[in-house]
Write a structure and sequence with these properties.
Blueprint lengths: L1 H19 L7 H25 L11 H22 L5
């Protein structure tokens, strides 16, 4: 059941991050879910690091602050994905 919650949180966070982030992002629904799940882990891990000072792989809870942390992490993931997949204009 916990994995299902991560998928739902990833979908919500990825959709919000793609709506907030400027420009066009491809990837479809599966890419949105994957970037959202990655972002949730990044945001959760950074939240644990900033609050406790230790680096641990964590995911935020399914709450308003948890969604905000996941969205911030998903924005970072979308930014990094755009850096990796950016094509040079020739």
């Amino acid at each position: 059941m916990n994995i299902l919650a991560w998928i739902v949180l990833g979908l919500i966070a990825g959709a919000i991050a793609k709506a907030i982030y400027p420009g066009h992002q491809g990837g479809g629904i599966l890419g949105t879910i994957l970037l959202g799940i990655i972002g949730a882990f990044v945001g959760g891990s950074l939240g644990v690091f900033f609050s406790t000072g230790t680096l641990a792989l964590a995911t935020p809870t399914f709450s308003i602050p948890g969604i905000l942390v996941a969205v911030l992490g998903a924005i970072v993931a979308v930014f990094l994905w755009n850096l990796i997949t950016r094509r040079s204009a020739v």
